[in-house]
Amino acid sequence: MTATTGATGPAAAATGAVETSARHDRNRDRKRSGRRKGAFLARRLGFYLVAGWSAITLNFVIPRLMPGDPSAAIIDQLERVSGQALPPATLVSIQGLFGNPDDSLFEQYIAYLGQLARFDLGLSIVNFPVPVAELVAAGLPWTLLLVGTTTVLSFILGTALGVAAGWRAGSRFDAILTPLTTFLSSVPYFWVALLALWLFGFLWGWFPLSGGYDPNLVIAFEPAFIGSVLQYGILPAATIVFSAFGGWMLGMRNMTVTTVREDYVLLAQAKGLSPARVRWRYAARNAMLPQFTGFAMALGGVVGGALLTEIVFSYPGIGYLLFSALQKRDYPVMQGVFLLVTLTVLLANLIADSVYVWLDPRVREEK
Amino acid sequence: MTTTALTARNDAARPVGSDTVLDVDGLCVEYAGAGEPVRACTDVTFALRRGEILGIVGESGSGKSTLITALTRLQRPPAVTTAGRVLFHPQDGEEPVDLVRLTPRKLRALRWTSLSIVLQSAMDALNPVMRLGAQFVDALREHDRSMSHTAAWEEARRLLGLVGISADRARSYPHELSGGMRQRATIALALACRPELVVMDEPTTAVDVVMQRQILAQVLRLRREFGFAVVFVTHDLSLLLELADRIAVMYAGRIVELASATDVYRTPMHPYTRGLRDSFPPLHAPVTRLEGIPGSPPDLRALPSGCPFADRCPAVMERCRTELPLLEPHGGRSVACHLHDEGIRP
Amino acid sequence: MKYSLFGNGKVTFGVVVLGFFVLLALVGPWITGSVLGLDARTNDISAISAPPSAEHPLGTTQFGQDVLAQVIEGARGSMFVGFLGAIIGTAISVLIGVPAGYFGGTTGNLLNFLTNLFLVMPVLPLIFVIAGYLQGTGLVMIAFIIGVFGWAGGARTLRAQAMSVSNRDFVQAMRMLGESNTRLIFSEVLPHLYGWIASMFLGGLIGAVMAEAGLAFLGVSDSSAISWGTMIQAAQQQSAVLRGLWWWFVPPGLCIALVGTAAALINFGVDELANPKLRSVSRRVVKRTAAHRIAVASEGA
To answer: I need a surface site. Which of A127, B100, B209, B289 has the fewest CB within 10 A?
Structure first.
């Protein structure tokens, strides 16, 4: 921003030729570093495409590897539920997803990919004849809302507390908070949820006991409904944040302790910068980078935990859908949920990687 | 007490303006880790004149790096300054301030405008996620609130020019520069707020010999130009002989000899100094057999009651085993060795 | 090394707690049966959903089963899955991570790619789905699934460490001298990684205990087995929360949290030993430094 204005300074006027070549250099440098970032992102994108393809293939392989014949079981169950023979189109769809004894694996795979391209995830057994895609699409916004906000909140809370504890490592604050957080991060999500439900919902009656919104309201984008979503969402969200922030905090705390001892932080102090600037612009800014490279691992745990939390609160998201599907062996729904959760997590990881590229100018080829 | 002892000779080495900029008196630094506290610096006393380059030389573990962080009050737990004063005399004739006891707020105002530092590894000393220029700009604007953003960037480019780095490099990130460039940039950075004293902690160890010469020449040139004083810490005595006006030799946390560079080279008084001098080849003399110093530095956790160098000393005497020699003035220079006590001549 | 390991309060606490639960898993059921005279499966019809009392120290469930006996019995189930899952997971992460770091080139890249793939996959949902197909399966199978899908994080760490060890001069030199790779891996590289592997095992242990609890909570565990997870699941299913039977679901969750904390504290302490930067900020050192500083300040005043 200022570099361009700087080029017109008095010194530049005297050595116009040098300056032009310098500007040239600068442009070349910027282009080169831009290209490197681009190359890194392209490589990551390629990786996530392969990962996405693997997830889709895994989704194809799992039912075929399982003992018994899921495909036949599903058809059998569907016929029992509906009380009649299934239309041929439905049969083809189910066999495409869960295995067809008559076709070769390759033919099945091609057919399966074709079905996915049409968003055909089969029909739910429990909610026959609702398509799985529809069920999943109905649950997804709730889960995205819950998991998305809680992930961001717990990341911010954990990172901020981690900087505070790591900055004054060994202080009373750190000596109390760090072991306490170690304990909190070892507590199962759904147990915290049960406890919170018991205390705040049952015993003290501060929050509703189950659901994602007031069932007497119509789902609509209006104040009453949004208010009810918030009212129902606070407790589940709070329990997820409560269980999830500890992991971020401990990571950030240890990274801060290490980073605070780096020479550039020492030099920042020697420069007489304000403590806040030294702490955030120098120490925390660098200590935060590994938080993004570890994002993938952490996110998987948060999503899994959030799915279980939804069950405790009967929250109308994907987790609750998965739960009822598992209970009733609704394989099509199970697989649909798995596919969707996996692809969403992969997308989130890709976003985290992109943020990392933007945060760290030393875009490294390999860690 | 010591200033009088130290200001006597060294006329040749003394630059213009002979008043004191830094007065270190009886400085002790301990490491309060698990177990008994360990003394890394004991009773360090010296004075630095305006514009002077004082070299501090010692092996690793001699306490020279500890001394630097204590002087600049950048030490971290478990290092603690347990005794002594570091008096800084501002140029405009204000009252001297004791850096050891200065409040954090006042210390912060003093940093970089009066006292700056160059660290050993420029790679580690520059924030990897900030543009080089931005690391100048934040220091400049911290100490001069009236400076505009644009003016600060312009100043950063000018400062980089001082050490021969082209102005457009201000937009680069540290990892995009070569090692020598980074090191020169940190020197330029140290001069950003025109300090009266620059502390340099082995700033040439991480670069090759050619770059080392360039950097030293630049330091000398900039010192001539801006007149700042330098405390230059290194383990390489040969380097100090060319650069420094005076040299302090540290051993086991104490200064064992303090003399002009010429005196250290020509007539080292402490056997350890002599050992150091003889352990590298002379630049302009026929090659002779090199003498190392046998043995290794003592364990700071269990120092002997006498002279800590006694076990390695070629001229050790009975007295050295029991009585610790203190740094005593000796004809314009100082040495801590029983060989030079009154009445004994080697 | 040994002295400082146990001089560390965190490690001591962790080892004691973890040791307690291991012991409980081994001999606990015998104690409940013959010493306390309680049985995890017997239904005491005279005490249905009873709060803690002298007869039932932790109360009873909806079915009149003694909660204390169930917690002790559950320790066996949970610790079994924890250990088995951790053993399998750690073994796979060693088998994949170490060669990935030791051999560069195509082999290394391929293994690394595999690791990254499993790293970005959300493992917990994957385990849920697979276990969903194998409903009613035993604890062994569950531990197996958990281990098979939960190795990637460990493999990544081991790969980095193996890489740094095998780039050291002495390993390079021995390679050039024609030492066989197998021998080098086993005699030079692996011994340097024992600490990491041990810490990985502890991480895997708590991961497996948690995953099993999650699976049980989803209702896909072995319905006849008792683990901490199945206890919480049963409590949830019988609406223990809405009926205020807190003594039913609080103890098993607390046990899981304690095991997790113990493992995490041991790892934390080991980290401090391995990383001097972390060690120098231990409460003791900081206190001593502060005490010193105060002494100087008062002396200077």
So the answer is: B289
The yes-or-no verdict on residue A7 having pLDDT over 70 is no
Rounded distance, CA C70 to CA A292, Å?
Answer: 41
Chain A residues with CB-CB distance to B124 below 8 A: 262-264
B14 pLDDT exceeds 50? no
Contact yes or no for C241 and A169 at CB 8 A: no
Check whether the bond before C191 is cis (ω within 30° of 0).
Answer: no
Question: What residues of chain A lie within 8 A of the CB of C122, using their CB?
Answer: 299-300, 303-304, 341-342, 345
Res. A2 pLDDT band, cuts 50 70 90: very low
Q: What is the CATH number of the domain that holds C117?
A: 1.10.3720.10
Same domain, B211 and B190: no
Give the E-state strand segments of C19-99 in sequence order: none
Provide the domain limits for residue B175.
Answer: 126-194
**Domain CATH code at residue B254:** 3.40.50.300
Nearest to B241 by CA among B277, B278, B201: B277
pLDDT band at A366 (very low <50, low <70, confident <90, very high): very low
What is the span of the domain harbouring residue C290? Answer: 9-300
Residue B33 makes CB contacts below 8 A (sequence gap 6+) with B78, C280, C285, C288
B92 plus B53 within the same structural domain: yes
Number of domains in chain C: 1
**Chain B residue numbers touching C281 (CB-CB < 8 A):** 77
In-domain check, residue B171? yes
B319: three-class secondary structure by DSSP = helix
Contact pairs from chain A to chain B, CB under 8 Å? 108
Q: Is residue C3 assigned to a domain?
A: no
Chain A residues with CB-CB distance to B under 8 A? 2-3, 5-6, 9, 11, 22-23, 25-26, 29-30, 33, 170, 261-264, 266-274, 277, 281-282, 285-286, 289, 359-362
Q: Give which of C196, C204, C259, C209 is closest to C13, Cα–Cα.
A: C259
Contact (CB<8Å) B32/C289: yes
CA–CA distance, C197 with C91 (Å, rounded to integer): 9
C285 and B33 within 8 Å at the Cβ level: the answer is yes
pLDDT band at B153 (very low <50, low <70, confident <90, very high): very high
Residue C95 structure tokens: 């088998």
Please give the tally of structural domains in chain B: 2
Are residue B109 and residue B253 in the same domain, yes or no?
yes
Rounded CA separation C105/C114 (Å): 14
User: Do B203 and B106 fall within a single domain?
Assistant: yes
ipTM, interface predicted TM-score of the complex: 0.84
- Let me know the angle formed at the C-alpha of C26 by C25 and C30, rounded to the nearest 5 degrees: 95
In a domain, C37, yes or no: yes
| Lookup result for tokens 């901020």 | A160
The answer as to whether B37 is a domain residue is: yes
Asked whether residue B326 is domain-assigned, the answer is no
Q: Using a CB-CB distance cutoff of 8 angstroms, which residues of chain B are in contact with residue C285?
A: 32-34, 77-78
- Backbone φ/ψ region at B10: left (φ over 0), alpha (ψ -120 to 50), beta: left
Is the Cβ pair C260, A261 closer than 8 Å? no
Query: B256 and B130 share a domain?
Result: no
Q: Which of B291, B306, B330 is the last residue of a domain?
A: B291
| Contact residues, chain C, for A197 at CB < 8 Å | 241
Domains of chain A: 68-117 (no CATH), 133-364 (1.10.3720.10)
Express each pLDDT in B262-291 by its tens digit.
Answer: 888 888 888 888 888 887 765 565 656 666
Q: What is the percentage of chain B residues whose pLDDT exceeds 90?
A: 16
The tokens for C48 are 């249905």
- pLDDT tens digit sequence for A348-361: 888 888 888 888 88
User: pLDDT tens digits, residue range B179-210?
Assistant: 888 988 999 999 888 898 999 988 887 778 88
- Which chain B residue has the Cα nearest residue C7? B34
Which chains does A contact via 3+ CB–CB distances below 8 A? B, C
Nearest CB partner across the interface for A182, out of C124, C135, C268:
C268
**Chain A residues closer than 8 Å to B110 by CB:** 272
- Looking at residue B230, what is its pLDDT? 92
Do residues B174 and B77 both lie within one domain?
no
Q: A87 vs chain C: nearest CA distance in angstroms?
A: 26
Residue A150, chain C, CB below 8 Å: the answer is no
B101 plus B202 within the same structural domain: yes
Q: Chain C residue with minimal CA distance to A307?
A: C125
pLDDT at residue A227 tops 90: no
Range C156-174 average pLDDT: 82
B138 and B214 both lie in a single domain: no
- Rounded mean pLDDT of A239-262? 88
